[in-house]
Amino acid sequence: MTWQEAKGECRVRNSHLVELTTIDENDFLLQKSLEIGSCVPTNTYNCGLWIGLNDQEEEGQFKWENSNFPVTFSNWLSGQPDGREHKNCVEMLQDGKWNDRHCRRNNPFVCEMA
Ligand SMILES: [Ca+2]
Ligand SMILES: [Ca+2]
Q1: What is the CATH superfamily name and number for domain 3-37+47-105+107-112?
Q2: Do the bridges between strand 111-112 and strand 16-17 make them parallel or antiparallel, or are there none, so unpaired?
Q3: How far is the CA of 63 from the centre of ligand 1 (A)?
Q4: Most CB within 10 Å of its CB: which of 16, 47, 63, 114?
């Protein structure tokens, strides 16, 4: 789903796109995604999962969509974010690193309850 659709899908389930505020939360999600293992990594970027982080409102100001908190902890892949105004939604890659990407990309996603 697109990031926007994923956000809506989480809402329907009474939850929101996951917010990762510590390395432990990041590692936990990474571990879970590896356990589910529905994607075979063929390159760095092909197994991304949407998380709640985005800079759609103001370029470069990344924040979590549900809490509206600005990003404090972050785990960007080296060289990311690189999308400027073209890429405003964030995915977690197969190694747990983050990448900004086109919000219209179809990615799996992770919801969490409040
Ligand atoms: Ca951006
Ligand atoms: Ca990027």
Answers
A1: Mannose-Binding Protein A, subunit A (3.10.100.10)
A2: antiparallel
A3: 11
A4: 47
